[in-house]
Design goal:
The protein is 41% helix and 25% strand. The chain contains 3 helices and 6 strands. The protein has a 6-stranded mixed β-sheet with strand order 3-4-2-1-6-5. Strand 3 and strand 4 form a beta hairpin. Helix 1 packs antiparallel against helix 2. The longest helix has 31 residues. The radius of gyration is 20 Å and the shape is elongated. The mean pLDDT is 90.
């Protein structure tokens, strides 16, 4: 698995998400400032609701821009024979099922596919990300999810 390629795919996906978010921001801003959004009486909240939506879209654009900056500045280096750190690509196994995760600075939950392999982005703030930090090949980690313990074995760290 090529970690540089995974990081490039994450950046490309974030850039595509940014374009969508910027278009949504533009549309919501236009809706908030359009003449039809002006309140006709004290109970008319169309303009206020459109303004809230525009503010949420603005925040989403900022989050994606921050994530893009983080990934562009994340050094890509091999982590063979090292413990898991930020930027690690990790192969896990849980009950016989393989899972690849990329421990990134942001954009948790994002998925990319490389060579027909699905890679999930997790952050160090997630329970699994916290459990993986400092671990190495062969270690087992336990994570509490919805009140149930899940055990993962670290198969490889790239």
């Amino acid at each position: 698995m090529n970690k540089t390629r995974i990081q490039t795919l994450i950046i490309e996906k974030l850039q595509a998400d940014l374009v969508i978010a910027q278009n949504a921001l533009k549309a919501s801003h236009e809706a908030a400032t359009h003449a039809e959004s002006k309140a006709e009486n004290k109970y008319d909240t169309r303009g206020l609701e459109a303004a809230y939506l525009a503010d949420g879209q603005r925040r989403r654009v900022h989050e994606i821009e921050t994530a893009l900056t983080s990934y562009r500045n994340l050094p890509v280096r091999a982590q063979l024979d090292e413990t898991i750190k930020l930027g690690a690509l990790v192969s896990l196994e849980q009950a016989g099922v393989s899972l690849w995760v990329f421990l990134g600075p942001d954009a948790a939950g994002l998925r990319v596919i490389d060579e027909d392999v699905n890679v999930l982005v997790i952050s160090p703030r997630s329970p699994l990300g916290q459990a993986l930090l400092g671990r190495c090949d062969g270690d087992e980690v336990e994570v509490l999810v919805d009140g149930r313990r899940q055990t993962y074995e670290v198969i490889a760290v790239c």
